[in-house]
Amino acid sequence: MSVEGKITPGGGQTSPEASGLGGLSRRHIIMGASLLAVSGLALARTPKRRYPDLSEKFYEGLFPSSFGNWRTLPVSELVLPPESEQANKLYQHILTRTYVNPQGVGIMFLAAYNSEQLNNVQLHRPEVCYYASGFSIDASSPYDIPLQGDDYIPARSVTATMGSRIENILYWTRIGDSFPQSWAAQRIAMTKANLEGYLADGLLLRLSVINPDRDKALTQMSGFIRDMIAHTGKQSRQVIVGNIV
Q1: Residue-level pLDDT at 8
Q2: CA distance 143 to 126
Q3: Please, are residues 218 and 168 in contact by the beta-carbon 8 Å criterion?
């Protein structure tokens, strides 16, 4: 004997379509609606791309090849990120130069950029690259680069050694509008941007001097970057230091 419907409190019957929409129970309908709502919320919160890709020519033009008393040399001893498929995903652009002034001070310069930072695609901090290249990391600590007035760049000072070569490094990472001075802070900056609904871009700007005198090297590199910023336009400053200046 088949069941045609369900007995209602008033004694009547309801059809299977009315009670279960073709065999689906009310519970299934509510669960389905909830899942759709969650899916819609997740889609709405998916971080959107905020920064466009930059062409190689445009990116290179953001950093002047000569300014003030500084000129570029055709050769470089820069320590570069290791080449691999993963490393190629980390950076859309890697610009390397060596600048020299009339006093013979040579500053090695690297600016690496990616228009979007993801959990599995994010900037490598120089301590990783130097260690992978055979250097020992003798010191690494936060360092604020003073600019005009009360402005400064939250950066990091590193001393790396390999044999007789002692290299003092000054670098910062910009993740969107943040300047994390540690790996943990870098992850937090990425997560914060994602929660705000966008994918942050990422810049690693690294200066280094082969000089065992840390204080003197930091003074030289800080002066160099202040001079560079003073000789760049708004687009360049936006990439280099965001909204700091």
Answers
A1: 39
A2: 15
A3: yes
SS3 99: strand
Contact indicator for 114, 121 with CB cutoff of 8 Å = yes
Q: Which ranges constitute the DSSP H helices of the chain?
A: 16-20, 26-45, 56-61, 85-90, 126-132, 183-195, 214-230, 234-241
The confidence score (pLDDT) of residue 5 equals: 41
Residue 20 exposed, middle or buried by CB count within 10 Å (0-12, 13-18, 19+): middle
Structure tokens at 235: 């687009």
Is the predicted pLDDT of residue 154 greater than 90, yes or no? yes
The enclosing H or E element of 175 equals strand 165-175
Compute the distance between CA of residue 97 and CA of residue 77 in angstroms, rounded to an integer: 9
**CA-closest candidate to residue 158, choices 96, 100, 79, 72:** 79
123/119 Cα distance (integer angstroms):
10
User: Which sequence spans correspond to the domains of the chain?
Assistant: 6-45, 50-241
Structure tokens at 75: 């050769």
CA-CA distance, 107 to 207, in Å (whole number)? 6
Tokens of 93: 């652009």
Query: What's the rounded Cα separation, in Å, for the pair 178 and 93?
Result: 20
pLDDT, tens only, 133-148: 999 999 999 999 999 8
The pTM score is 0.74
Structure tokens at 83: 């080449």
**Gap between the Cα atoms of 80 and 69, Å rounded:** 26
